[in-house]
Design goal:
The protein is an alpha+beta fold. The chain is built from ten helices and 38 strands. An eight-stranded mixed sheet has the order 30-31-34-33-35-36-37-38, with helices on both faces. Strands 17, 18, 19, 20 and 21 form a five-stranded antiparallel sheet that branches. It has a four-stranded antiparallel sheet with strand order 5-6-7-8, with no helix packed on it. Helix 1 crosses helix 10 and helix 4 packs across helix 5.
Length: 622
Amino acid sequence: MSSLPFGSWPSPFTAASVATSAPRIDGARFAGSEIWWGESVPAEAGRVTVRSSSGAEILPAPWSARSRVHEYGGGAWTAGDDALFFVSGADQRVHRLVPGGEPEPLTPAGASYGGLRLQSGRLLAVREDLRPDPHRRGIVEIPVDGSAAEDDGALRVIAEGTGFFAHPALSPDGTRVAWVEWHERTMPWDEAQLAIASLADGEIVRIASSAALQPEWLDDTALVYADDASGRWQVQRLHVDGVTPAAAPIALTGTDADTGYGLWVLGNRWFQPLADGRVVAARTNGRDEVHVLPADGTTSTALDLPADGHVSVDDVSGSRVLLSGNSSGTTPGVWCVDLDSGRVEAVAGGVPSDPEWMPGAQPIVVDGAHGSVHAFAYPPANPAHTAAPGELPPYVVFVHGGPTAHVTGAASSEVAFFTSRGIGVLDVNYGGSTGYGRAYRDRLVGQWGVVDVDDVVAAARGLADAGLADPARIAIRGGSAGGWTVLSALVRGGTFAAGISRYGVADLRLLAAETHDFEAPYLDSLVGRLPEDEHVYVERSPLTHADRIDVPVLLLQGGEDRVVPPSQSEAIRNALAANGIEHEYALYPAEGHGFRSAANIVDALQRELAFLGRVFGFTPAP
């Protein structure tokens, strides 16, 4: 083993290998005798295809299954026994594709669709129409024979309004539809209702809920859904008389974990009922476990699975369950589990990681100003190299977006890109993150730019105080809301020697004026209401205090970002230039909110490594 300075270790994890090694998995379905799953293709500008366990590509290029409902999309495809139903990323119309044939449109042009659900041969979806003012959204049934391809009037509108909708579910007898909805002035993790409609007479009953998620019918008289009135998202069983609750809901899970998290996309499913009454549910307390809840309500059983992060319980067939997600010991994947035999099969991805190159993340908890702060530490790891005795490693603190989201300590080629070179990574679930209950995520209410900054600073200092990181060589990196925390922490000063902001927020008033419908009320809870709280928006914004930033900054931005437009990064760039602060700005014209193209992923990672080398005084290996 040779001795080289941290940051300069040769590594097989190139930027190009990171871009192609772990495509994003986008759900899985049983399709006849096959299993189909969605998968991104970074080499094709992030196109999302659908592949089959038979080895076939079901959705050929140039088609891409991508929804823009609520901007973040989700649920852009589903499967029948012999056909694929998908939302075309190009025009947002729903199409039907029989493998080997050509896609046929099922909806007219103009609106966007997502959250597709095929049950008993009937196709339900969330529709979003941004043409009228105010914008309209709702739950619709789409004829699968193509009769609505040119006629909006042929779609069956089940519910509609100016709020938001998710997770339509058809009752087994086909007479009712359940879904989740929330008001246009709130976020779904703050308040969302369970609703049930009668298809015979249009009656809709809205059931008092805290932050409801994902209704699923057990039979014609009962359904399960998740709600967090207890402070944790729990699976609830509700008996109904038609569309009316027949009794109070009964919790099937405990309050030591969450079954559910922020409803950013429409395709996530945290649980699925089986025909025999059992329920398979993912439960999160930092990391995920998958449990089987017995029909008789006795103690649940945890499954022994590789998947332990952002697990989606995508589909069931008999005793078989399809799961997709991340893992602390493998690449992201799709797994098929037979609950009766116990067999676990990796259908896609799920390749075990090499512990010498990618050791498991270490969960850590540090004391912060607002309570405990949870994080995952990835120390430098390279079986061929070490540093000189006494040298402490540089670290990059990762700050996730959202901010109502979380990280799980998953194995990651992106993390290994840094750690294999001798740069540690600390991934922080600051206050406001999901996965630790409502009280933990409510820490950020009215305190965005305060609690998140305090927590990432506490986590970084805790690592340095423990003698695990060089306190003079800690950088901070984040995207979107994570980019806001990066810039806010640099304004605070004193902890981080550099910052990397990917499409980060710099000016709250600009964000409030330019952001899209789904997140329009987000700042009300995170910061305050305009115009009465405008002074808070001004005081909190990093752009207001850009003169306090005194360390180098790398800014990375997508030119077509409609969530955090380029004006945000360009405003902070101009301020840094005016103040003579070392900075670099890279604009990727064809990218939106997040980078999907392999070429841009590669360029961004290479820029980050070179930037860290300049700031921290090491020369990256070729």
